Amino acid sequence: MNKLLINFFSAKSGGGKVILDNFMEHFDADDVEIHFIFPSEYDFKFEKHLEVKVPKWMNKPYGLFWFYFFFVPNYCRKNGISKVLNFGDVIFPRLKSQTYFFDWAYLVLDDSNIWSSMDFKSRFIRMLKAALIKAFKSNNKTVIVQSEAISSSYKKILGFEGEIVVAPTPVSINNIDGMSHGIDKNSLVYISNYAPHKNFEIIPRVASILKQNKVDCSIVLTIDENSIHWRNLSCELSGLGVLDMVKTLGPLSQEDVFSVLKSSRALFFPSKLESYGIPLIEAMILGKPVLTSDTPFIKSVCGDAVLYFDPKCPEDIATKITDFIDGVDYCRMRQSEVSKVLENIPSWDQYTRLLIKSSI
């Protein structure tokens, strides 16, 4: 019987956690002995497969070094495992023939403004991660990506000559509670945690233009209301006199994300860079219009199904929002394009089979 190690050690939140939860619910691999590595505190019981117990201290920065360089390679050697499906942050330096799930768009980022906006620690960590991925790229037999744009960029920047499999991440919509969560009919919702590339800094200027033009809408965020990022943003909003137009709900459960999207007028998604963008697909499934950034990465996922704006130009963003609110509903006219996007997304059963097949 084939043996496969699947590393979900870093899948603690966001898209990684979504993939982990659904993978465990849908995977079927009776002919493969799978050894799973989960994040700390993740609880899943097996009858046929094995969980690798990782010491808690390996969650620390110095522990991660030991985890990637020694702990996992030694475990594979002792248990006769030669195949690895790696959802981790970096490539295992001492394991060959890995299948690596790549969803880290910073590696293909060419926007110097985003890099320069990071503090030293954030920039150093990201640069180190990029260097490690580049240094050990030859350890990958196969790379899994979520869009054609990321596939092309990965090949170009890393000179990768192995197999690249494009596998859009499935999205399941369920357990919508029907609550509005304080979202009114003209709320534009931005579903995202804070990160430098998410472009939150442009929102105060967009809100100011919308208020000057008396546009009847509000912008709703989901960043932590106790974070330094929201405090800084709210100070700027207050200084421009538009704090009444922008609020944050704080981080949401997956069920609440669906309810908030369903109650909103549209998804507003001004991110400068995405490897995929699960909220874009969630909004389409829920029949909600999407206003988002005109970038190659997002276009590769959304095609002609959404309304685009220049993410660096607050005037253009405000103009597109104004046209949309005033009834120039480009998104509704693109329903056939939405159907084309959704038709290309696999089910979770298909997705898990593809990933396991690509790894053994």
From TrEMBL:
Record keywords: Transferase
InterPro entries, per the entry: Glyco_trans_1
GO molecular function, one term: glycosyltransferase activity
Domain Glycosyl transferase family: from-to ranges: 184-327
Pfam families for the chain: Glycos_transf_1 (PF00534)
Coiled-coil parts of chain: none
PANTHER family: GLYCOSYLTRANSFERASE WBBK-RELATED (PTHR46401)
Protein name: Glycosyl transferase family 1 domain-containing protein
Species: Vibrio vulnificus (strain YJ016)
